[in-house]
Design brief:
Layout (H helix, E strand, L loop, with lengths): L1 H20 L2 E9 L4 E2 L4 E6 L5 E6 L5 E7 L2 E8 L6 E7 L5 E8 L3 H6 L10 E4 L2 E5 L11 H5 L5 E3 L5 E3 L2 E2 L2 E4 L10 H4 L7 E10 L1 H6 L6 E9 L5 E12 L4 E10 L3 E10 L10 H5 L4 E4 L5 E4 L19 E15 L4 E26 L2 E27 L4 E27 L5 E27 L6 E27 L5 E30 L4 E25 L2 E5 L5 E19 L3 E18 L5 E20 L2 E12 L3 H4 L10 E4 L7 E14 L4 E13 L2 E7 L5 E7 L4 E15 L4 E18 L2 E20 L3 E16 L9 E13 L4 E12 L9 E14 L5 E8 L7 E7 L2 E7 L5 E14 L5
Parallel strand pairs: 1-8, 14-16, 35-39, 38-41
Antiparallel strand pairs: 1-2, 1-5, 3-4, 3-6, 6-7, 9-10, 10-15, 11-12, 12-13, 15-16, 17-18, 17-50, 18-19, 19-22, 20-21, 22-23, 23-24, 23-49, 24-25, 25-26, 26-27, 27-28, 28-29, 29-30, 29-31, 31-32, 32-33, 33-34, 34-36, 36-37, 37-40, 38-39, 40-41, 41-42, 42-43, 43-44, 44-45, 45-46, 46-47, 47-50, ...
Amino acid sequence: MKFTILLLFVFVFCSLRGSAQTGYSVKGVVTDTAAKTKLLNTAVSVLNAKDSTLVTFTRAAKDGAFSISGLHKGNFILLVTYPGYADYVEQFSLDSIKTMRDFGSVSMILKSKLLAEVLVKGTRAAIKIKGDTTEYNAAAFKIQPNAKVEDLLKQLPGIQVDKDGKITAEGQEVKKVLVDGEEFFGDDPTLVTKNIRADMVDKVQLYDKKSDQATFTGIDDGQKTKTINIKLKEDKKNGYFGKVEAGDATDGYYEGQLLFNKFTAKQKFSAYATVGNNGKIGLGWQDNQTYGSSDNMQFGDNGEIYITGNDNGDGLDSFNGQYNGQGTPLARNGGLHYDGKWNSDKESINANYKVGSLEVTGTQNTLSQNDTPQGIFNTNADQTQDDFMFRQKLDLTYKIKIDTTADLKIAADGTLRNSHTKNNYLTTNRGGLNMDTLLNINNRSIDNHDDAKIFDASAFYTKKFQKKGRTLSFLASLNEKETNSYGYLKSTTQYYDPVKLNTLDSTQYIDQYKTADVKSSEFKTNLTYTEPLSTALSVVLNYGLGVNTGTSNLGSFNPKAPGVYTIRVDSLSNNYKLNELSNQGGAIFNYKSKKVTLNFGTKISNVNFDQTNEASGDQLKRDFIDWFPQANFSYRFSQQQNLNLYYNGSTVQPTISQIQPIPVNTDPLNITLGNPNLTPSFTHRLGVFYNSYKVITGQSIFLYGNYSITTNPIASNLVTDTTGKTISQYLNLGSKRQSNFDFNSYFDKKIEKIDMNAGLSFGLNGSDSYNLSNSEINLTKSITYTLQFRVSKYVEKKYDGYFNFGPNYTFGGSSLQPGINNNGRGFDADWGGTVYLPAKFQIGTNGSYEWRGKTETFNTDFNRTLLNASIAKTFMKSDNLKLSFAANDLLNQNVGFTRSSSANFITQNTYSTIRRYFMLSISYDFNKMGSVPTK
């Protein structure tokens, strides 16, 4: 009886609960009010407001009416979609008081009309996540008329563009910007972002561009470049567009640029010319990041020799052709671009030519602290610089689709570069047991010339077999570089008696002529075969052969007579010949399902290295095995949510400059000496990347992190004597492990009630590094926390603006001086905005604020406010003629400043840069783009 009553109670309770849950409903009628028609079969969905998940859906009847019952109380989103119309989205709530919501007439607007009126009244999928690619729908973001791609990128969640045009995405610098998947002027992203009009863009794709072989096989080989691809609208691929701009300012500053582009369905032609000394244009050439700006030979991950570093081999200063805000630049650049397709798109060509020069002049002051067991040494160094580089580059890529299963890609490029560096230094060292004791004063000058030639060529063949997943690819590449350097080192060092204060003890004079002739040639091949083991599992086998040769002839000469340098200094000279043969093999397994992708395996390289001292006949032969394990895991939670984890490891060989026991005396107070007994180190790298986007709420989340640890690291043994002179020699620390880490997160959401975008980012980076100081182990720890808030708002033809701000804090210290740390607080902010006034006037401002608090090492803080302003008027119907008056650095506070720590040293730099000026400029944008003609 009790059991029957219990069942009856449960039945009544469930009936009442079901009745309570299903008493909520919505209804309405879907119409096109402009056409005065009802839209039958319209899809009507109800989503949970919290996470945008689907609750239920229905379709409208013939009269456009819809009704959905069986809902429960809560917060929801109504989504109405119909082909050719903009989505209709509205949030609503149901509760015990309001159990039914009548939406009445739901008005839909044609997309064509929406775009014509530049009016947005719905929510479109602003972001899509396709595997490793994040795709932004340009139409979902608001931009002003005549805006450029750079202005569009500033609106995209997870992407930041600084005042110089540098792009950062997901915590990494974007090195390439493509147009419809093709190179556009090679390696200068700003030539796309400042040249292409934003209203021509259909989609913006962000991804890690892999090597050609990794892209073909689907197996990550660790070669990645953060890349943005600009996909153009179909109706913006026929016609021409460009820009002409000129500006003149006070204090001798000026700028000018001419940009022209002509696009057709199958061809693109572009040309540009720029000149300026205000740091705004012509500074984006990144060749040195690809090829290196030096002639320091070292080993790559596969045992190959290549050129990298910051010196030119002779130890003298060398200009890398980059402007990083230090000094005043004068940039002159020009270029041509052409790409085309023919033979039913089976063949294509992409060619770029660039020529330019960059001159940078300025001053710099460096304060540094050297922590040693014997005490603390402080250095105050003043520098004047005058650097110049002229360079030109031609590159060509040809692709052909041989048949439906085979492709061939041939690429070649050549670079000529000439540079001249003139630097003067005045350095004072104090320290020891008494931190104020004068130890030495050094006055030196360096005058150096570099001439470099670079040539690269590669051929990549791919073949797909009849069996799905079975492929073959072959890559052959050649890299050659030759650099000839010559210059003069003149130095006077006064050493003071550390006991008899301020008493001169001795003086050292150096007057030398230095030369460096360095050549390298690297030929590599790689054969890769993919075999499917099942529908989900495949294996990738590869074999590679590398042949590398190089010569390094360094000379130092003392004068036999004034201006006649013929006495060779053998202790500072060498002539080495390098030969290397490497054989590499490997196997990578790849598993792929609907949501999971996993690959793992290893490569092994056997390297035979032979180094010969041509002067003495001494030979150094080395045979070693390099291991390259790797693993990658990807999980796709949904179309808009993705997680990636990766691991890879590699043997790191010492560089030639680290091995050769030749002292470098460019700075007589800091001598570097190689060590032929160095052994390889090994680095493990771990990484994670997560992204998520919710279409309806416009919420996006990006997480990115890296951690690396190096065993048997190569470190420096810094020996500082009582005179303040330091000799640095490389050695292995077999029992120690060095680590580096960085983590970045980004959250962005649109606040619908006030139509504003808001974002929050958090960054964490640091390192644990070891070195020896006077033969005692020193552990240097550094970690920096950064928090940034971001808000932006756009009201078309009225105003737009953004504001980023947030604090940071750095922990830093050395185990040799535990009582002294480099902890310090900081705060950064940047902003910008424009107000559009009647009569086509507009006023704008942008700026930044930086503050760095005092530390135990540096007892003064630093703060700088940069404020820029402008007023402009546009003319003509399309507002494409603009006259503007701008003020740069209104408060006249632009002084460069950095702080850093490395090994024993804590360093603070202040440097000259571009200061206040007032500029009058005129610009004209021309645009005649239309649809591609149809046959």
